[in-house]
Structures are given as structure tokens and as C-alpha cells.
Design brief:
Length: 285
């Protein structure tokens, strides 16, 4: 059973889902075992990621802060660790299940949907494209008709459906079916950095849209990391003030999730504060 927690949340929100290092060790050990088993060809189907730049994804204006982080320049695929979904997945595994609600299948996740929620997440625009490919084909075949559910915090570090003040909202969550190129693209805002966690986007991959909207048979769960140079630029803007100090106390190497290897989870990000940013990441299942 997956453990749904981010290793640290806001200092004033620590609860039973944040149990410290002793709670994390089984997750980290399991991830290392997955890597070892994949290396000896034990018949497991690995989750693989590439940060190769995708010229078919939506474009934004390049800027000097555009990142070529991770393995972007190499274009090589490598195994991506299976990650925790955290305490705020909204997939029915930890309370509320947004996946069964009408309106969750969408590309623009900046606004809440439904009768009881009407808020809009504010922040620097971020459009991100995930490309799902078949690992058995050597990452050369797109997974058409798969589905991806994404969620992340707002610029203040809060998660809709869970965090006080935005618990009645369901923004920054959405599901899409992959197209013929195996791609899904979401319009969102740049997430903030809250206490103890590197800026990230959660995602779950499902075999089909039907599986996703019934919250069954998750194929893989992982997280996308955002590069520091872009985070520094974004967090210098209005509304992200608390993220500055939080990020200063962190590094990818010290983050509780990314510290044992983040190269294949680090998105390629381009753009500017004025024009918005685009992020791309390829994953194989």
C-alpha cells in the first residue's frame, strides 16, 4: 500500500500524515529495490523518464533563465523512481476523491470546477507537457489512450481540497487522456515552495481515462521537479514571498523525495515571468 505523504508540510500543518524519517525509510528502501530489480531484468516494467526537449510542445518565449537542467541535453531515457503521492492526492486514497467528479477531465487547471467551488489560482503562468511512452519499446512508442492525473500546490503552498482556506476549492487538479503522441498538456500556475519540500508537481499515470476517472489501477506515481534558476526568478515576483526563504533552506540533494536521484525527474523549463513558462518531461510505463 502506498504511503501518501510529503515528508514535510507547513510547520503549522504537521499531522498524522507527516511521521518523519522513520516513516519514510520503507518508501526509500522500496525505491532502491525497484532500481536494483530493474537492473537485473527481473521482469518488472520500470517507470522511465526523459527530460529531452520536445519541440512539439507548446512554446513560450525563451529567456536567459531558460533551464537545460538534468539530462535534457542527452535525450536519453533512464529509470525514474516511483514516488509518494503525498498527503493531498485527492484520488480517494486519503479522503476526498476528485477523480470521480464531473469536470475533472480538463486541460486548464487554474480554476475550480463544480457548484461548490469558484476560485482561481493566481501566479506566474506555467504550461507543462508530459509525454507517456512505452518502456518495453525502448521509449520509442507513445502510449496513446493512457491517462495522467496531475496536482500541485498553489503559490502560497496550499493544496486544494485539504489546506485550510482552500479546502473548498479543487483547482490545480486535472486529468487528461494522452493523444496520438502520448502527450497531455496542462495550463496552470507556477507552484510555490512550502516548508521542507522542493517545488514539484505530482502525477499519476493510468492505463486509460476510464481507469483514471474511477480511480482504479494506477500504473505509476511520481513527481516532476522544477529547476532552481527558474524558481528563483519566479519567487522574486509578487505573491511568492514565502517561497523565497523556504527554497533557500533546501536543495534537490537535501529534498526528502529527490535526494536519492532527481536527474530524470527534472523538467526542462523555458520562458519568462512576462510570457509564462513551459515545462516538459517524458515518462515511460
Amino acid at each position: 500500500m502506498r504511503r501518501h505523504h510529503d515528508d514535510e508540510v507547513h510547520e503549522d500543518e504537521i499531522h498524522e500524515h507527516d511521521r518523519g524519517l522513520s516513516y519514510d525509510l520503507p518508501v526509500l528502501a522500496r525505491r532502491r529495490m525497484i532500481r536494483l530489480m530493474a537492473g537485473v531484468g527481473a521482469g518488472l516494467v520500470p517507470l522511465v523518464g526523459c527530460t529531452a526537449d520536445d519541440t512539439s510542445s507548446p512554446a513560450a518565449a525563451d529567456s536567459p533563465s531558460a533551464s537545460s537542467a538534468g539530462a535534457a541535453s542527452s535525450g536519453e531515457c533512464a529509470t525514474v523512481p516511483e514516488e509518494t503521492a503525498g498527503p493531498f492526492p485527492g484520488d480517494g486514497s486519503n479522503g476526498v476523491n476528485v477523480l470521480k467528479e464531473s469536470g475533472v477531465v480538463r486541460s486548464d487547471i487554474t480554476r475550480s470546477f463544480g457548484d461548490s467551488a469558484g476560485g482561481t489560482a493566481e501566479g506566474v503562468p506555467l504550461t507543462f507537457t508530459l509525454t507517456v511512452v512505452d518502456a518495453a519499446s525502448g521509449c520509442g512508442t507513445p502510449k496513446r489512450g493512457a491517462a495522467v492525473y496531475v496536482w500541485h500546490c498553489d503559490r502560497e503552498g496550499g493544496y486544494s481540497l485539504y489546506t485550510e482556506g482552500v479546502a473548498d476549492e479543487n483547482y490545480l487538479r486535472g486529468v487528461q487522456e494522452t493523444d496520438d503522441r502520448g502527450q497531455v498538456t496542462f495550463t496552470s500556475v507556477f507552484p510555490g515552495c512550502y516548508t521542507g519540500r522542493w517545488p514539484h508537481v505530482h502525477f499519476e499515470v493510468y492505463g486509460s481515462l476510464a481507469d483514471a476517472t474511477t480511480a482504479t489501477a494506477i500504473t505509476s506515481t511520481s513527481q516532476l521537479a522544477l529547476p532552481k534558476d527558474v524558481c528563483d526568478t519566479v519567487y522574486a515576483t509578487e505573491g511568492y514571498e514565502s517561497s523565497v526563504d523556504n527554497l533557500d533552506r533546501l536543495s534537490l540533494e537535501s529534498d526528502s523525495v529527490f535526494r536519492d536521484g532527481h536527474e530524470q525527474q527534472l523538467a526542462v523549463v523555458k520562458g519568462s515571468v512576462a510570457e509564462g513558462y513551459t515545462a516538459t518531461l517524458t515518462i515511460a510505463v
